[in-house]
């Protein structure tokens, strides 16, 4: 039952991600991308990461995609014209397929080893997923967390400068 | 629980489709969306390995990737609007101001 559900969600994710690349109209691409993000959130729930699923829906499918659709509407982008240079399309597809072949080949060749940590499913259920993430974030990853705030400040300043000045 | 290889193969397929989109599309916003898709494919890998190894660190890295993606969205879309104001286009073939 779980594998059947996985196959359905994976099929929807892959079909909608193909639609992102093939659609002529950027709005259709953006809506297909929202569908892909929801499928990925479903995968996160299946992998016992409910907080990351909620963050995925709120941050990606909510905030970032609203920003992208807002810009598409604001710029009134035309439907893409007939492609010039089909050689570039063929070469790009070849490189993409090569990347796929390479990743799947290494995946099949190797075996999954590694040091097993302490986060078991029982611990997620008893302690809570948000508590575990928060504990890791504010003890082991405190410095990266603070650097993240500096990064966001720099992004805000950059966006304001770009929107204000005549470039 | 399903084997981790299933999730990794889905992630590899999504990453490759994102690569094809970045290399072949000409609309800058669609290229941007394909980059977001590649970031999400890597996030799925992080969470699958985090579950497989029983280690929370992968999920913390997903948190950081999301932060960087949000910052990138803010700056990248501001750049596109600034470029569109000057050139009336967001076709990547028109972005050639630094060309010699």
Précis, in short:
Chain A has 167 residues and is mostly helical. Helices cover 80% and strands 0% of the residues of chain A.
* Proper CATH architecture of chain B: Orthogonal Bundle
- Order of SSEs of chain B: HHH
Q: Determine Rg of chain A (CA atoms, Å).
A: 21 Å
CATH topology of chain B: Helix Hairpins
- The computed structural class of chain A is mainly alpha
- The CATH class label of chain B is Mainly Alpha
Explain what the structure shows.
Chain B: Its main location: membrane. Chain B: This is NADH-quinone oxidoreductase subunit K. Chain B: It catalyses: a quinone + NADH + 5 H(+)(in) = a quinol + NAD(+) + 4 H(+)(out). The complex is a heterodimer of chains A (167) and B (100). The mean pLDDT of chain A is 88. By secondary structure, chain A is mainly alpha-helical. Helix content of chain A is 80%, strand content 0%. Chain A folds into 3 domains: 1-82, NADH-ubiquinone/plastoquinone oxidoreductase chain 6, subunit NuoJ (Four Helix Bundle (Hemerythrin (Met), subunit A)), CATH 1.20.120.1200; 83-115; 117-167. Chain A has helices spanning 2-22, 26-46, 50-75, 86-109, 121-127, 129-139, 142-164. Chain B has helices spanning 4-24, 28-53, 57-87. With 100 residues, chain B is mostly helical. In chain B, helix 1 packs antiparallel against helix 2 (28-53) and helix 2 (28-53) packs antiparallel against helix 3 (57-87). Chain B is elongated, with a radius of gyration of 17 Å. The N and C termini of chain B lie far apart (55 Å). Chain B has one domain: Helix Hairpins (Orthogonal Bundle), CATH 1.10.287. The relative contact order of chain B is 0.13. The longest helix of chain B has 31 residues, at 57-87. Chain B is 78% helix and 0% strand. At the A-B interface, helix 1, helix 2, helix 3, helix 4 and helix 6 of A face helix 1, helix 2 and helix 3 of B.
């Amino acid at each position: 039952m779980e594998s059947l559900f996985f196959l359905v969600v994976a099929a929807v994710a892959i079909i909608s991600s193909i639609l992102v690349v093939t659609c002529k109209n950027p709005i259709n691409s953006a809506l297909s991308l929202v569908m892909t993000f929801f499928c990925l959130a479903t995968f996160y729930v299946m992998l016992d990461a409910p907080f990351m699923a909620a963050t995925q829906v709120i941050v990606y499918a909510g905030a970032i995609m609203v920003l992208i659709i807002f810009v598409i509407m604001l710029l009134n982008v035309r439907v893409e014209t007939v492609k010039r240079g089909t050689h570039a399309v063929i070469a790009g597809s070849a490189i993409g397929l090569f990347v796929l072949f390479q990743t799947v080949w290494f995946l099949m060749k190797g075996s999954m080893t590694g040091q097993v940590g302490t986060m078991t499913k029982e611990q997620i259920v008893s302690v809570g997923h948000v508590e575990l993430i928060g504990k890791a974030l504010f003890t082991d990853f405190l410095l990266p967390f603070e650097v993240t705030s500096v990064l966001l400040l720099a992004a805000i300043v950059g966006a304001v400068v770009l929107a204000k000045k005549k470039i | 629980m399903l084997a981790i290889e299933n999730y990794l193969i889905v992630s590899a397929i999504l990453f490759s489709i994102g690569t094809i989109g970045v290399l072949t599309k000409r609309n800058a916003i669609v290229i941007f969306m394909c980059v977001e898709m590649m970031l999400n494919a890597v996030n799925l890998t992080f969470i699958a390995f985090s579950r497989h190894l029983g280690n929370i660190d992968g999920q913390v890295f997903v948190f950081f990737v999301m932060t960087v993606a949000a910052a990138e969205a803010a700056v990248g879309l501001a750049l596109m609007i600034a470029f569109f104001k000057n050139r009336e286009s967001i076709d990547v073939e028109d972005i050639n101001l630094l060309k010699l």
